Amino acid sequence: MPSIAPVPGLRAVVPAGGAGTRLWPLSRAGAPKFLLDLTGSGRTLLQGTVDRLLPLTGPGGVVVVTGVRHEAAVRAQLPELGAGDVLTEPSPRDSMAAIGLAAAVLVEREGDIVIGSFAADHVIDTGPGFADAVRQGVVAAREGHVVTVGIAASGPSTAFGYVRMGPSLGLADAPGARHVLGFTEKPDEQTAAAYLATGEYRWNAGMFLVRAQVLLDHLARLQPELHAGLREIAAAWDTGRRAQVLDAIWPGLLAISVDHAIAEPVAAAGGVAVVPGDFDWDDIGDFAALRDLLPGGDAHVLGDLAKVLAIAADGALVVPGGGRTVVVLGVPDAVVVDTPDALLVTTREHAQAVKAAVDALRAAGRTELL
Question: Which range marks the domain in which residue 349 is found?
Answer without folding.
Answer: 287-369
